[in-house]
Amino acid sequence: MTPMPQRSLLRSRKGQSLVEFALSVTLLVTLVFGMAEFGRAWMTKSIVTGAARDAARMYAAQNDTTAAGNRADNVLLSGGLTLNRRRNIPSLPNLSDNTVFYIVEYQFAVLTGLFPTSLGLDNFLLSSKTTMRREY
Known about the structure:
This protein is an alpha+beta fold. It contains two helices and three strands.
């Protein structure tokens, strides 16, 4: 068996390093963008929860679904969310236990494009429901 010349051995190692670098960078970029999207989704869920809480509070205190919806929309707007992706669902007052609830749903769109659109993983429905005792 004849030994390989030093020059060809060095070339094969350069190719190996390039392949390892390409695989590592792909994984690292996917993790970084995935963490960024998770952070955005967490923040959006927090804003939606706050909107549902404020709307339920307004509905429980004033029995006005229009004012409650406006309050939910104001909270969503102050959080930087658009209103064309939201849906507000007030309840009818429950007379047996004297409570009302308010649901805010928001269609969260993924920005990075990491998830395939054919599987429907590019949009997530974030929803929050708050129940409060009526005050009127």
